[in-house]
Protein 1
Amino acid sequence: MKEYANKYKVPIIKDEGLIFIRDLLKIKRPLKILEIGTAIGYSAIQFQNSCDCEVYTIERDETMYNEAVKNIKLANLSDKIHLVFGDALDIVEDFKDMKFDVIFIDAAKAQYLKFFVLYTKYLNDNGLVICDNMLFHGLVLQDNYDELSKSLRGLVKKLDAFREFLLVHSEYDTTIYDIGDGISVSVKK
């Protein structure tokens, strides 16, 4: 799967970030994880193998969704990983009767705040929200965004605003780790 991701430029979690999250999952021992942003199913498979939990994962890109279906089937995890096709911003009500121990956000970076607000109502007390790419290649903590393209500048500003939102949120204790491309871990109080 890593070869496929590299060949077709599919962003998957960096090794050091994955190791960190797998260690967290081994400690937390979640029964149910929600992943927003499946891509080819790489992290969902890794998470399920870490803690033998149920994983619900959302993907909006049909090509990625089909590749994820194939990879999850090859891993013999179709009964443990539930792949949902759709835009996470549009299908939030599909999860209204569920509760999750961990929510992992690794999708459209400019939408992280919306994903957080929409889906944390389905998070159990003491649950974790983990977000990847929080430092976005070091650009989020950069002092000056003037040299970035307009679209990249907008994305980085949204990620920075989301980072600030997490750090001051009264219902969560958040730490941002300089691991991989930056990982935030927010614990629901």
Note: The mean pLDDT is 94.
Protein 2
Amino acid sequence: MRTLLEKLNQVARQTPERDAVVDGDLSISYGELADEIRGLGATLAARCPAGSTVTLVVENSIRYVVALYGCWSAGLIAVPTDAHSREREIEQVVSHARPALMIMSTRKSNAVAVAERFAIPVVDIERVLEPRTDDAAWEPRYCDDALIIYTSGTSGDPKGVVLTHSNLIANTESIVDYLELTYEDSVLNVLPFHYSYGNSVLNTHLFVGGKVVIGPSMMYPQAVTDELRHHGVTGFSGVPTTMALLVDRTDFASEPPPLRYVTQAGGGMSKDLTLRLKDAVAEPTRLFVMYGQTEATARLTWLPPERLHEKLGSAGIPIPGVTLRIAGKDGRDLGEGQVGEVLALGNNIMSRYWCNPEATAATVIDGWLHTGDLGYLDADGFLFIQGRASEMIKTGAHRVSPKEIEELVASLDFIDEVAVCGVQDKLLGQVVAAFLVGEESPANARKVLSLCRQSLSLHKVPRYIEWRDRLPKTASGKLKKHRLAASRELRT
């Protein structure tokens, strides 16, 4: 099997009446979904040569699924982007990906303006499509490249990650394996499909013939909890912020939905939040803490739920088909407990960065993905992430890991979120700054400093503490620490 589309069509032939995607009052069966994909695929194939890029500006919906798999049916490379993006943000993707077509709702004036500016033809996903090819002899086309996902840009330098059908199949099969997904599973999805985590949630459940229920926005966390109960889904996936909202802002813990599993990725989750989430879910719900990157299609490691307490704080073990090693600055392997860069090898590692051979050559070397994350492996082969190499704070002669400080501060009950980063200092090069979300008060700020002084070396104690209503994040939930640092430096 070469593509996820082939697997979806197989499921559609075997169980055409089973629900595939539910979106509010709308639902579509596997048979109907396969027909819609085939129709759009034929339409797109008539308008674009195989191997062309096509930008998708479609929000989470049944239409998005049809658009994504329709591109694959036509042998095209899908380039999804956030339908709620500003015009300038869509323009950045389009100017780099150079799509032959844009699939969108023409009610999205921001996307329409970009299409007109670049003279790109548009397929309106909400309207009746052009006459479809009903000839039974028509067969889907194939192009090895399947998807370009633009990285979240936490460093301010987004890149287009090219994922092949082989990458997608490899990662999907591995995730299905350790989550033990079957056709009986269903998931309430609140993650953006246009990023790797949401994309993997979508593809893994369609792969096994399960059901994907498109959930409400996490702006309304109680509504999400209510939907979990209403649909009786077996699974839920989220980033740390998602989990904090469920535990702290809803009645999730007092009346836990009967989930089979909960998965967390999209950034490290503090030990405190991990334990609170574990306490909140009902037995026998299994909590999977995971780690990955867009460049790895989605997933690199998973922490077996039965070892959660024993290995608290760990990102877990490699998923099936992935090999990890820890390398020093000279590229040599480091031993047990030694911190270095996390390197990964497997069939899920990206093909390349789109139109960026220099970045590709610096990131994938001899097949090994250089993640840019720092970590170590313990005696049992469990990975512990210590932060990103680019986020290490260099203050005087010291190197400080933000993660250590964040874990400590997050243990305070009046803190909802914390981000620690380095800001420029004329004397020391950088000093530590902590940005807090929670119960703001001078007394609580003093408690933060007091805890840090009691628990950390002096050079690790935050020089600056700032309260924020919220922390800047990408659409996939990752912190934009460069923006926090820049905002602080403008005032110093």
Note: The domain at 392-489 is CATH 3.30.300.30 (GMP Synthetase; Chain A, domain 3).
